[in-house]
Amino acid sequence: MEAENLTTVTEFIILGFPEYPDLQIPLFLLFLLIYLIILMGNLTIIALTCLDPRLHTPMYFFLCNLSFLDISYTSVTLPKLLDIFLRKRQRISAFGCFTQVYFFIFSVCEEFLLLTVMGYDRYVAVCHPLRYTVIMNQEVCGLISTGALIFGFMDPVAHTVLLSHISYCGSNEINHFFCDPSALLKLSCSSTSTVENMSYVLGAFLALPCFILTLTSYACIISAILRIRSTEGRRNAFSTCSSHLTVVILFYGTIMYLYLRPTSMQSLTQNKLFALLYNVLIPMFNPIIYSLKNREVKEALRGVFNFNRKQFS
Fold first, then answer.
1. pTM
2. How many helices and strands, by DSSP H and E, does the chain display?
3. Are 13 and 172 in contact (CB under 8 A)?
4. What's the CA gap between 37 and 75, in Å, rounded?
5. How many Å separate Cα 31 from the centre of its chain?
6. Rounded distance, CA 216 to CA 218, Å?
7. What does 68-131 look like in DSSP terms, one character per residue?
8. Residue 294's CB: how many other CB atoms inside 10 A?
9. I need a surface site. Which of 114, 167, 195, 290 has the fewest CB within 10 A?
10. Inter-axis angle of helices 24-51 and 295-312, to 10 degrees?
11. Are 188 and 167 in contact (CB under 8 A)?
12. CATH at 308
């Protein structure tokens, strides 16, 4: 009985984007460019946060964490996709596939938690500015970051173990660009209800509360902004808030749409397109939306360039 529950495949084949056989090299170049932009943008944020004392604040501490997460996020999926485009190496071992699943779920959980914490940080800064340094002190930020990291590492364990122990006795071809959990479930010839229920539990106890808390934080922020008398001040604050909310809604909306629906209602082609949104586009635009438009980051960049110019002059 136990043997029936074990996977009968030792490797999977990731199909990538077989719908476009004549565009594999152009797609390779496009995704390579996007990956390099993600790395450069997020590494810039990390470097500036570490080098410039003006950015040693809770807001940029969490932005630094988000940038590191975005790099990890895309590094789980894009290098293998680039390998598929360039060298047609579509095979991945079962261990490698489930390792990819684990780190993918870890990244999703971490992003839920980080977006929630960042929303709360902005809420305290806008609604309780006089108590901000007391509430969001260095020790609190460190504890929150460590707690989120520990939870993020523990949460995917059960989901990954369950996925690895259902029976894959049919095709081993994954119609996706990485080992996506929903695509793996399509290959199973045994009951997947336990894994699906685990997804609903994850959504009920993590995704949904984080989403509600984040929206509540921004609702309070908007309420406080509406009380600002200066039109220019309101416009600037709303601009920042709307950018953050756009990322939050895109991320949460995509994840919930993809993974909180029954497997029978899911279209793998549609799933791939939505997965590109949170795997590629959001990590690429996060540095611009959250940091590179900020005055403090521009000043830090200017300071680094001026220092380098003096060093070489």
1. 0.84
2. 12, 3
3. yes
4. 13
5. 17
6. 5
7. HHHHHHHHHHHHHHHHHHHH---EEEHHHHHHHHHHHHHHHHHHHHHHHHHHHHHHHHHH-GGG
8. 15
9. 167
10. 90
11. yes
12. 1.20.1070.10
pLDDT at 32: 95
308 vs 88: CA distance, rounded Å: 42
Integer distance in angstroms from the first to the last C-alpha of the chain?
Answer: 74
Nearest to 181 by CA among 250, 104, 257, 115: 104
Laid out side by side, the sheet with 173-174 consists of 91-93, 11-14, 173-174
Domain count, the chain: 1
Most distant pair of Cα atoms in the chain: their distance: 74
Residue 88 gets the label, from left (phi > 0), alpha (psi -120 to 50) or beta, of left
Please name the residue that has the structure tokens 């261990």: 95
Domain with 138, as residue range(s), is 3-312
State both tokens at 291: 């940091």
CB contact at 8 A, 68 and 46: yes
Q: What is the pLDDT of residues 260-297, one digit of tens each?
A: 666 556 666 677 877 888 888 888 888 877 665 677 77
Q: Is 13 helix (H, G, I), strand (E, B) or coil?
A: strand
Structure token pair of residue 95: 């261990």
SS3 (DSSP) at 202: helix
Angle at CA of residue 220, ends 285 and 282, nearest 5°: 10
What is residue 37's predicted lDDT score, i.e. its pLDDT? 93
Question: Do residues 268 and 176 touch, judged by C-beta distance below 8 A?
Answer: yes
Residue 89 zone, left/alpha/beta (φ > 0; ψ -120 to 50; rest):
beta
The pair of structure tokens assigned to 153 is 């590492």
Distances (CA, A) of 292 to 56, 240, 287, 295: 16, 12, 6, 8
Distance of CA 23 to the CA centre of its chain: 27
Q: How far is CA 267 from the centre of its chain?
A: 22
Which helix (H) or strand (E) segment holds residue 93: the answer is strand 91-93
